[in-house]
Amino acid sequence: MGLLDSILSAVSGKSDASGEAAPLIGILSGLLAQSGGLQGLANKFSQSGQGNTFSSWVGMGENQPVSSDQIQKALGSDQISALAARMGVDPALASQFLAQYLPKIVDKLTPKGKVDPTADHQQGLAALLPSLLQSLGSQSSGDQPAQA
Questions:
Q1: What tens digit of pLDDT does each residue of 42-65 get?
Q2: What's 4-46 look like in SS3?
Q3: What pTM was estimated for this model as a whole?
Q4: 39-73 as b/e, with b when 16 or more CB fall inside 10 Å?
Q5: pLDDT per position as a tens digit, 10-49
Q6: Percent helix, strand, coil in the chain (nearest 5)?
């Protein structure tokens, strides 16, 4: 069973979700660390022509959507493959996961509408994880996706 399956079963009440939070925080913080933090991630999106999309996630307005192909282009196939391996899923599924949740994650990590290079993103990820897990859980049970 991959990490994503474990998380989905945890949020559907089939196991203890608290044990699943740490690996997901590790994966997401690893993505940030490999990218050079939020600023590095912003640079990757900018270089791939998606700078305005990323800026919408940071800003105070509505988050622009991003496709799994755009995620793949911005982050690169090596980083997507590594993330997919850690999640125990196919790279295409990892791209879809990031396309759906990365805008919300970046939005929550930038509550003042700008990237704070001194912010502790590990702590921020830990704080937003319960709502992310709840959002994952509502989708796995067939409910409408939660809006950020």
A1: 999 999 999 999 999 999 999 999
A2: HHHHHHHHCCCCCCHHHHHHHHHHHHHHHHHHCHHHHHHHHHH
A3: 0.76
A4: eebbbbbeebebeebbbbbbeeeebeebebebbbb
A5: 444 444 444 556 677 778 888 888 888 899 999 999 999 9
A6: 70, 0, 30
Q: Which among 119, 101, 117 has a CA at the least distance from the CA of 27?
A: 101
88 dihedral zone (left: phi>0; alpha: psi -120 to 50; beta):
left
Which domains can be identified in the chain, with CATH numbers?
A: 3-140 (1.10.10.690)
Half-sphere exposure of 102 (CA within 13 A, CB side): 30
The dihedrals phi and psi of 10, each to the nearest 5 degrees, come to -65, -45
The two structure tokens encoding residue 92: 């295409």
